[in-house]
Specification:
Helix content is 35%, strand content 33%. By secondary structure, it is of the alpha+beta class. It is rod-shaped, with a radius of gyration of 37 Å.
């Protein structure tokens, strides 16, 4: 074999080595492409499906923190120092020495009304109702109105004796305007009812409040003109217990101290008149 043949064979061997290397490289690239396609088609798709499934079944409910913030922000002007806090499954509201513990039971907040502090209790549970309603409807004014008109016939609200249960998975329906009852003469009203107005002799009485404290009961409200306001308290049979009158302008506040005859248990109704 001459020198030229040796050179040709050497070139052939080099080309074969080069072709083999290129073949291996192409095989590696091909395998990489196949693995990448498998990842995109199966593994990533499965992960994406799982994420979508999780998000699809994740329900957005109002947080207890949001309710607590509304209590602290919206009641602080009336109850200076009121402080709401939240835990994993409960809300606590403290005002002075008064403490309300409000647990979550089966998606309902269980609020026990303190009969010795009825107005404070009412303001707190109404704020909770308004907070939940606003979260789902984004209508604060309508929700505040609705919170003042709840009863056992209201969806998401249950009254059991002195306990109210408030569903936090949906809110009550907002009410754009509150149509209060207006009486045109002195009328005997249940002691816990203040959702009405009076128009007697063209003098209006509104913003009526009943505060039953430890030692006395106070009836107050706003009046549209100067006059003599008379407040009467009654027992469960509408028998008169006591009466008091006061010359007033713009507003009035009449208090009755408790005694052996007049106490929280005996006072069941009241009336207001003006002349």
């Amino acid at each position: 074999m001459n020198e030229q043949d040796l050179m040709i064979q050497e070139k052939i061997k080099k080309r074969e080595k080069t072709d083999i290397m290129l073949a291996y490289i192409l095989i590696v690239i091909l395998l990489g492409c196949i693995l990448f396609i498998v990842y995109l088609k199966f593994i990533r798709k499965d992960n994406s499906s799982n994420e979508n499934d999780i998000s699809e079944y994740t329900v957005n409910y109002i947080k207890l923190e949001d309710i607590v913030n509304d209590i602290n922000n919206n009641l602080s002007s009336k109850y200076s120092g009121i402080n709401g806090t939240f835990g994993e499954n409960n809300i606590s509201v403290k005002y002075g020495d008064i403490l309300f513990n409000i647990p979550v039971i089966n998606n309902e907040l269980e609020f026990n009304i303190d009969m010795d502090n009825k107005e404070l209790s009412k303001d707190i549970y109404r704020e909770i109702i308004a907070s939940v309603c606003t979260y789902y409807s984004n209508d604060r004014t309508g929700c505040v109105n609705a919170s003042k008109s709840v009863s056992n016939n209201t969806n998401g609200i249950r009254f059991v004796n002195d306990t109210i249960y408030i569903n936090i998975t949906s809110g009550v329906t907002p009410i754009e305007t509150v149509n209060k009852i207006t009486y045109e003469e002195e009328t005997i009203i249940d002691i816990d009812n203040t959702d009405y107005e009076l128009n007697i002799n063209d003098i209006f009485i509104n913003n009526i409040k009943v505060d039953m404290l430890d030692t006395k009961i106070t009836i107050s409200g706003d009046i549209s003109a100067t006059g003599k306001v008379t407040v009467k308290l009654y027992d469960n049979d509408s028998e008169l217990l006591v009466s008091e009158e006061l010359d007033s302008e713009n507003n009035f506040s009449i208090s009755f101290d408790y005694d052996d005859k007049l106490n929280v248990e005996s006072i069941k109704k009241y009336s207001i008149s003006i002349e």
